[in-house]
Every structure is written in structure tokens, then in C-alpha cells.
Amino acid sequence: CLLAIWVVSAGVWASIVAPARNRPASYAEWAHHHWVWTHARQATQETQEALVRGFQERDIEVGALNCDSSWQSAKNSLKWDLERYPEPKKMIDELHRQGIRVTTWVTSVINPDSPNFEEGAEKEFYLKDWSGNYTLVKWWHGWGAMLDYSNPQAVDWWHTQVRAHLETYRIDGWKLDGSDPLILQLLPSGCNGHT
Questions:
Q1: pLDDT by residue for the chain (195 residues), tens digit each?
Q2: Rounded Cα gap, residues 88 and 183, in angstroms
């Protein structure tokens, strides 16, 4: 497919935009195929595997399975809930064997019941209010502190946890849920990043 814009001036056709050629997308081919997931409240290893089988039984190709927010032991702990997913590595390996990619849900809002929360608080890795204390924001999974991306040490801490999850379980990507607008809750309290 070509796209070009032409104009006529004094009886002569002239191209004002060079013809464009469609190129393959810059992301992986598997991203073009059907992504499936079970709502967080119902999601378990068993229901996720059954969901994929259901699509396959109907000859619907599955490109990726997303493990929604309930895959974790606590919100943004980056640790599997082993009651819901007793053998996550086995599930991921089997899906990969079938050519199905696996993504897991994550945001940068860490709830106080998460095992990594206290370390982030002690190291001052969360956004702070005007008084210099981290502030919890209300979000769809309770209350949590927002990672301070202006602090390079906080980013390194978070990325170390993310890399460990990637390397251990060989997931193929993340569903990065939209926590960005939550920053608006902190603005009235004088939200401060790293100083």
C-alpha cells in the first residue's frame, strides 16, 4: 500500500509527501494474535489453563495469556500466589511449548501488605507529601504507595525485582495497568519526588 499526496501547480503534478511504504510492525508477531485472560477474581492456574483449552477446542489461536492482578501474593509483590497458581513455572513452560506467550499484570503502586513494601518505605522509595512522608493513594486494589521514578535508587530497586521475576519465570511481558493518573491524588498534598 502506498500513500502519497500530490498537488497540481501550473499544470504539473508534484509530490509534496514522498510515497510511504507500509513496513512490518516493530513489535513481535505474537502480539498480533488473540490475548486471553480470566478476570482477577476468578483467575487461578486451573481457570487460566481451562480458558486456553477452551479457545483451542474452538480452533481459535491464542497468542498470549495474561495473568491478571491476582497472580501475586499481594499487589505488586512480584511474587506468585501459590494457592492460586501452585505451579506457575510449569504452567508457563507448557504454554511456551504450545507457542503461547505469557504476560503478568503489574503497576508501580505497592500496597502495605506486600512483602516488599516495608523495604521501599525504609529506603524512601515512594513519593512523599509536603511533610516528607510517603503518602498512600486510594486505587482499585486498596491503598498503596507510588514508586518514586525520580529516584534512581528506587528505580534500580524496582527493576531488580522485575528482572528476578523475568529471569525466574521467563514471562514474555507485562500488562502495565494505568496507575499514572493516581499521581493527581498527591498533587494537592504537595507531592515531592527524589531530592
A1: 444 444 455 555 555 556 566 777 777 888 888 899 988 889 999 999 999 999 999 999 999 999 999 999 999 999 999 999 999 999 999 999 999 999 999 998 999 999 999 999 999 999 888 788 888 888 889 999 999 988 999 999 999 999 999 999 999 998 888 776 666 666 555 566 665
A2: 33
